[in-house]
Amino acid sequence: NAGVMQNPRHLVRRRGQEARLRCSPMKGHSHVYWYRQLPEEGLKFMVYLQKENIIDESGMPKERFSAEFPKEGPSILRIQQVVRGDSAAYFCASSPPTLAADTQYFGPGTRLTVL
Amino acid sequence: LAKTTQPISMDSYEGQEVNITCSHNNIATNDYITWYQQFPSQGPRFIIQGYKTKVTNEVASLFIPADRKSSTLSLPRVSLSDTAVYYCLVGGQSGGYNKLIFGAGTRLAVHP
Questions:
Q1: Could you report the per-residue pLDDT of A34-83, keeping only the tens digit for each?
Q2: Is there a contact between A48 and A39 (Cβ–Cβ < 8 Å)?
Q3: Are A104 and B98 a contacting pair at CB < 8 A?
Q4: Helix H segments across B3-111?
Q5: N or C: which terminus of chain B carries fewer CB neighbours within 10 A?
Q6: 3-state DSSP call for residue A27?
Q7: Nearest by CB to A106, which of B32, B45, B92?
Q8: d(CA B44, CA A91)
Q9: With contacts defined as CB-CB under 8 Å, which chain A residues touch B64?
Q10: pLDDT tens, B35-71?
């Protein structure tokens, strides 16, 4: 039973390039969350998606950042025209569609470095 | 969402029991208390969750007093591999989902 998969694990981009981060949730999970973590800090919520719907993007920067979770395929976090301040670890988490106090299962993260 | 306060760091030795206390004075009635563990270069891993009294699993125990304004994560007989950052989170579903609010966590260092 595979866990949450993220790729790439490490991504290096130059300023102004685009970064695409992928997340495949656990089997049976239809809820996906994206978080960002700066060094020595806790994770910060960015966006919550269900299949084909963005439910809560209150943690996403207003510009350059977008996320999607299509009907087929992984969830994508896209950062356009990256800047050095975007360097961070980006974690995806998934949870099942239940009403219980849900447990989120995290992927290994993508470490983005902007040169 | 209730704010949590926990020690920035703790040190322990192999074989000892470690107790990490978290304060959450403004916890709401429908909030759960959840602890995650994070190793360097990895995503957080769920450890334990509770609402009140005591919860125990194969990894840890969680003690929650009656007023629920604090909680204590207990790790029995720690080993070097328990060196990690431990996060205490308080919250619950709102609108059918739960965006987790992470603080800085407690950095636990286990020494030989």
A1: 999 998 888 999 999 998 999 999 999 999 999 999 999 999 999 999 99
A2: no
A3: yes
A4: none
A5: C
A6: coil
A7: B45
A8: 9
A9: none
A10: 999 998 899 999 999 999 999 999 999 999 999 999 9
Answer yes or no: do A101 and B32 touch at CB < 8 A. yes
Distance from CA of B28 to the nearest CA of A (A): 14
- Which H or E run contains B22? strand B18-23
Beta strands in A1-115 (DSSP E): 5-7, 10-13, 19-24, 31-37, 43-50, 53-56, 65-68, 75-79, 88-95, 105-106, 110-114
How distant is the Cα of A42 from the closest Cα of chain B, in angstroms? Answer: 5
Interchain pair B43, A4: CB under 8 A: yes
Tokens standing for A45? 């919520």
Decide: B19 and B72 in contact? Cβ < 8 Å.
yes
> Cβ(A31)–Cβ(A75) under 8 Å?
no
pLDDT tens digits along B10-34: 999 999 999 999 999 988 888 889 9
